[in-house]
User: What shape does this take?
Amino acid sequence: MSNAKIAAILYEIADLLELKGVEFKPRAYRRAARSIETLGRDITDYYKENKLEEIPGVGKAIAKKIREIIETGELNYLKQLREELPAGLLQLMEIPEIGPKTAMRLYKELKITNLHELKKAAEEHRIRRLKGFGEKSEENILKGIRIIEQRSGRMLLGYAYYYGKKIEQYIASVTKLRTVSVAGSLRRMKETIGDIDILVGSDNPSMVMDVFVSNPEVEEVLARGDTRGSVRLKDGVQVDIRVVSTDSYGAALQYFTGSKDHNIELRRLAIEKGYKINEYGVFTKETGEKIAGKTEEEVYGILGLDYIPPELRENRGEIQAAAHHQLPHLIEIDHIRGDFHIHTNLSDGSASIEEIAEECKRRGYEYVAITDHSETLKVAGGLSKEELIKSIETVRKINEKIDGFRVLTGAEVEILGDGRLDYPDSVLRDLDIVVAAVHSGFRMSRKEMTERILSAMANDYVTILAHPTGRVIEQRDPYEVDLERIIDEARGKGVWLEINALPERLDLNDVNAKWAKESGIMMAIGTDAHSLDQLNYMIFGVATAKRGWLEKGNVANTLTLNDLERVLGI
Ligand code: DGT
Ligand code: CA
Ligand code: CA
Assistant: This one.
């Protein structure tokens, strides 16, 4: 049991007591926690020597608790406190605007129990309606949440992406340079991003740095050197920049794109071939002569490798494959001809079927499936049978008006607890696309959950299994499920597994998508869009597919409308 862990427990007690409105005690716990953190010696030594009470701030009561923690690894008192209040309330108090009293009010009046719910309430302007709150406090709360999201580690790809692109475009357009790119995990399109890295190739670095810090989005310049710098944007996002000479741009882009594991493997290969590789270029070991560095293609080429797309650079076999000219021909966004998962204003979305159809057509799609929620999911405006049948009629009328495009009828149908679907077969039969989904009862055993999903997949009308593992990134772990059996069933029944493109889902994820591909499964990307803007999430679905090594032929959205109609018999 480390000093840090024991201190953390005492801090948590302090916070919980504060929430409960207990006076004085929180301060005592914090004082003890702080002195344990900075003890400079292992606290278990004090324990063994029976000298815990010699630590500043540790009295009889706290010493007793520390002994319990060291002896049992747990603390009953903390358990009890935790049971009295939702754990997420503690996170609320990390926002400067929110003290214990406010946290309790948000809990009691708006039933907010964690940061996620707080964010939602602020975004939906429910907080400003509380007495004593206003628009300003709502804004401050949102700002506080963003900073915490930053601090607590990683941003969602869907969040970092727009900032990265904006800054990339700003620098490129002001400097007129073509050698400007995001790098790091963002260029690899990883599902979460630690910080945003920008790389610029230029022989005038001070000009580039001037442009970088002049971006109107910049709130604070954290560091500014000759060739590297760091800023914080107004929303709290941190961006790092490096400027390298143009003849090293390719080597630097390769190096700073990572991943680290990919780079380590590449360096090993370079050494094997008698070269040295770093962010400046590839050099011969003997004479130190530079033999590549201007472009990434050159760098990979000199090592005997085909060009490796950034999404694959995770050291999952891509270097081997590139050496043997066996890299996959990755799917691209331009291959996408339609979207299989959309919500309209008939359930909890904001756009009408017609607006969605027009927007999808404008994007060059050939089809879109309308998949509102089913009856049981009342919180999300699930459609009754009658409403669904009426919407099928609406779709038919739109299809009569619109040329060279087809709106597919569909539904995102709840998989009920016992594996039955939320509409009878007599209704499902009339739909072009049935997306089956689990939105409740996540806590089943692995066996129960697997059986539940398998029995839903056994229904002949199911086209797609939505977000197959149910995870929500950094909010909810995947439910317990035997994915191998799901994959087998999908292959046997011809059910497509979804790559749900919502930034907080990305489910299947990259690794599971690769597994499904290798198992011969067809996948379908669904944006799960609830507005026209969210149709853009297709980028993240495709990125996940690429990271899963998927080719055009592995993804149903690349089918032409004709082929799709033939495959589905619709
Ligand atoms: P992140 O920011 O945590 O989402 O992940 P990355 O991959 O963007 O990592 P970051 O920002 O620390 O560094 C950017 C890239 O720089 C990283 O992907 C690979 C390269 N890099 C950083 N440190 C090392 C290192 O120690 N060795 C090697 N070979 N490459 C490194
Ligand atoms: Ca990074
Ligand atoms: Ca970085």
In short: The domain at 155-244 is CATH 3.30.460.10 (Beta Polymerase; domain 2).
